[in-house]
Prior knowledge:
The chain is α+β, with helices and mostly antiparallel strands. The protein is about 50% helix and about 15% strand.
Amino acid sequence: MAEKDSAKSTSLTDEALPIGTTLLGDQFTIKGLLGAGGFGISYRAEDNTLGRTIVIKECFPFDICSRKGKNAVARGDAMAKLMRLTVEKFMGEARNLAKLRHPNIVGVHRAFEENETAYMALDLIEGRELYDVIKSNPTPSPAFVKNILMQLLDAVAEVHDMDLLHRDISPDNILIEEPETPVLIDFGAARADAHRHTRALSAFQVVKDGYSPHEFYVDDGKQMPSSDLYSLGATFYHLLSGMIPANSQTRLVEIASHRPDPCEPLAGRIEGYDETFLRAIDSAMNVHPEDRLQSAAKWRSLIAEVKVESVARSSFETSSDESPLDLELTLSRLVEESNEEVKNVSRLAVEPELAVAPPKDVVKPEWIDDFNQETVESQESTEAEPEVPDLADPILDARGCCYAPEGEPLSTNWVDRSLKKQERVRQERASRLEMLDPETLGQTLLPDSEETLKYGKEAVHSPENAIRPRIQTFGVLGALLLCFGFLAFLNAVDKLVLQQEQAAVKSEFGKFEMRGSIIR
C-alpha cells in the first residue's frame, strides 16, 4: 500500500477501542485488534451469549470522525450530517449483506448502533490472506489459481445479483481457508443499489492503487459490476505475474496520449495457462468499462469452456496439477458423449446381407413324375422334329429344374411343342362354344324368343346378360306398384280430410239453427 494509507492505518489503530470494551450491553467483548482501514476498524471479539469468537466491524470513517471516549464524534459541525448519513448507509449495507448466504462470502449475523456509530457482527475466518500466499509462493500451480478464481467469480456473481458492489476486492480482502476455499471479506466499502451514486460518500470511499478502476477515483464516477471485475482481475494479475498492476489513472493517461499501456497483458507470457484463461483476465482489466467483461457469470463460462477444450486437445493426457474432481468430471462427460454416439449409430438402418444357402434335399412332388411321364409319352407319339440344340425340351427334377434323362439327348423343339399345345387349347374352347350355339342345340334346347333375338349369343354365353331382362321387368313392375300404392294412399287421405270438413260444417250449422230457435 501507499505510505499515506500506512499512516492512516497507524492513526486508526490509535483510535481503536481498548481491549475489554463491551458492546450491546455485555453480549460482545473486544479481545483484540485485527485491522483498520479508511472506512472502519475490525476487532476480534467474543460472543458471550453463544460462546464463540467473531469479528466486530466498526463504522469509523477517519476523514470525518475521531474518538472521544468510546464514541465516534464528527470532526466539527460541518461533518455531523455526513457522519449520520454514513452510519445510516453502513446499517443499510449490513442488512443487505446479511441476506447473502454463500460459502465464499463472510457471513453477517447482526448489525447495531452504539457509541454514536454502527457495528457489524461477522464470522471469524481462520485463514491466510491471499496477499501472504503471493509472497510465500510466487508461482502457484495453475490448478490452484483456476480453483479459487472459479469460486470467487461465483461469490461475486451472488453479490451483484443482490444489486451490491464489494468495491474493495484485493489480495488482502481475500482469505484462503483449508482446503483452498477463498472467502471475500471486508464489505465496509460496499454500496447498496449499484446504479445510484452519492457525491458526499465518495470523499472517503476506499481506493487502492493498482486494484481500483479509474472510475473509483472520480467523483460521481459511474460504478457497475465490471468495476468489481477490474479489481478481481488486478488481484489475479498480481497473483500470476508477481507484480502489482499499474495504477488505472496512469494507464488511462498513457492510453489517451497514444502511448503503450504500462500494464503488460498476461496473454502469451505466462506458462502453464491456456491463452483464453489469460485473455479473460486481460479483458476484465481493460481501462474503459465498456471494453471489459460485463458479468462474473460470463467470465466463469469462459473458464469452464477452456477447461473442456484443453482436455479434448490433450487426448486424455492430464497434468499432475489437475485435481481428481476435474478428472472425474471430464471422464464422465466423455463417457456421456461416447454413449450418445453409440445411440446415434444404432439408430441407422442396416440393410441385411443376402445369404446364399446351399441347395437342400427336397421331397419330390408327385406332379413332377406325371409331368415327366407325359413329356416322354408325347415325345414318342409325335413325329421327330429337327433338333435345335439351343431350345432343348427339358424335364423337371425334384426342385422344378430342367434336366435330360441320362443317355437321352434333348431332341424335342420346346417352342414348337408349346405352340401346338396352345392351338389344341384354342380348338377345345371353340368346340365348347359351338356346343352352346342355339343353331347347334336346336329349338328344343333353346327356342327362338324375343330375348334370344334381342341379346344374341351374349345372352347365352353370359349368365348376367341372360337374367338382365328379367331384372328390368321386375323393376318396372315394382315401380308401378309403388306408384299405385302411393296414389291410393293420397286418395284415402283426401277422403278422410273431406269427411272431417263435412262433420265440422254440420256441427257449425247445428249451432247456427240452435241460436236461431233461441232468438225466435
